[in-house]
Amino acid sequence: MLGGVKYGEMKQNPEKVADEIISAARERGIPVKNEDKEKIITAIQKASKIVDKLTGDVSEEKLDALYQALAEKTDDPLYILKRNGIDIEPELEEFRQFLAEISGRKTETEDLKVRTPKTGIPSEVLAIVKGLEFADFSENAMQKAEKELLELIDGLLDDEKNALWVFYAVKLLRLIQRKDLGGIKKFED
């Protein structure tokens, strides 16, 4: 419940919740612009999509997955959810993009465009190569690099404009998996 409004009612009538939020902000002396109401309504609608995916199936299996992902200590809650058939990544990305838009910040994908050197290889991928070199290609460093690359690839897969970056990340990932140190050393060339 938010401001006396139950979730179902909030989802049906996000304007009411937006009015509650604006009223509470004004009571605290926070200035609110007219266009803020639309932003709040949009935020509620986008967040509701995530909540619906998380709570849409209350089977024991799904509830266990939710508990593991949200209550237990885990490195990758999204992976646990996805592995159990709860894929909130598209909705989460949509919400993140919305927040980036209203804050005037760039999204990760836009940031990658800025951080791509003349070679076309994303700086994140080049940094992994350098990190491996500094760690003398230790087994631990190779495992961490593999995990980092998988996370980077997952973050890039939703937009086909990232195809070239995905290629470089996958290429390095395969070199690491094959323990091809020569290939890794030549990667920047």
Description:
The chain folds into 2 domains: 7-103, no CATH class; 108-185, no CATH class. It contains 11 helices and no strands. It has helices at residues 7-12, 14-27, 36-55, 60-70, 77-83, 89-103, 108-114, 123-134, 139-156, 163-177, 181-185. The longest helix has 20 residues, at 36-55.
What's this, in brief?
The chain is an all-alpha fold and 189 residues long. It folds into 2 domains: 7-103, no CATH class; 108-185, no CATH class. The chain contains 11 helices and no strands.
Structural topology:
Layout: H1 7-12, H2 14-27, H3 36-55, H4 60-70, H5 77-83, H6 89-103, H7 108-114, H8 123-134, H9 139-156, H10 163-177, H11 181-185
Structural class by helix and strand composition = mainly alpha
Strand proportion: under 5%
Radius of gyration: 21 Å
**Major sheet size, sense and barrel closure:** none
Q: Give the SSE string.
A: HHHHHHHHHHH
The structural domain count equals 2
Query: Helix share of residues?
Result: 55-70%
> How many strand units?
0
How large is the count of helical segments? Answer: 11
Weakly predicted, low-confidence segments = 112-116
Looking at the structure, what is the overall shape? elongated
- Distance from N terminus to C terminus (CA atoms, Å) equals 57 Å
On the 0-100 scale, what is the average pLDDT? Answer: 83
Keywords:
189 residues; mainly alpha
